[in-house]
């Protein structure tokens, strides 16, 4: 049933509507990081927090990887930055060009995989077994990803404002 509407006024089906929201949040995240040096991207928020924009790039790559490659595609990919719970995605975010390039490359690869997977699957009600998350449908996973990006966009806005005063919106 094509009853949902994107921000452009186009009628979209359910999957395409969710994909549009997710794409929009990803683009907003990229914009929050644009034009910064590796050192600025690695700048930590408020001690003792390890949160930085670069850490966020790494974290979101890991989130995309787990939800799409593992739970939706049924694979068993190794984590990009150390075992679950060790926070290496945040702790390993150092202000070098090599670290920045690696993080964005991983993020882009995971986003491309996720976009391809979603484009090939129409059934938002399909159910997968996601270990400690229990049985969950595709819709809930994609909505969770939108939520994950929305939450981190608030963090990214604050970090960016501290770095150079730029505010979104």
TrEMBL record:
<dbReference type="InterPro" id="IPR034660">
    <property type="entry name" value="DinB/YfiT-like"/>
</dbReference>
<protein>
    <recommendedName>
        <fullName>Mini-circle protein</fullName>
    </recommendedName>
</protein>
<dbReference type="InterPro" id="IPR007061">
    <property type="entry name" value="MST-like"/>
</dbReference>
<dbReference type="Pfam" id="PF04978">
    <property type="entry name" value="MST"/>
</dbReference>
């Amino acid at each position: 049933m094509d009853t949902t509407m994107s921000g452009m006024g186009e009628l979209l089906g359910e999957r395409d509507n969710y994909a549009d929201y997710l794409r929009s949040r990803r683009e907003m995240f990229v914009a929050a990081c644009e034009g910064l040096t590796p050192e600025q991207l690695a700048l930590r928020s408020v001690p003792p927090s390890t949160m930085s924009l670069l850490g966020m790039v790494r974290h979101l790559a890991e989130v995309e990887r787990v939800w799409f490659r593992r739970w939706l595609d049924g694979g068993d990919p190794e984590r990009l930055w150390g075992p679950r719970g060790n926070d290496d995605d945040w702790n390993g975010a150092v202000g070098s060009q090599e670290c920045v390039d690696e993080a964005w490359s991983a993020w882009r690869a995971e986003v491309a995989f996720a976009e391809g997977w979603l484009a090939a699957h129409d059934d938002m009600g399909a159910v997968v077994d996601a270990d400690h998350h229990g049985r969950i449908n595709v819709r809930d996973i994609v909505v969770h990803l939108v939520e994950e990006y929305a939450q981190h966009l608030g963090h990214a806005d604050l970090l960016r404002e501290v770095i150079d005063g730029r505010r979104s919106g």
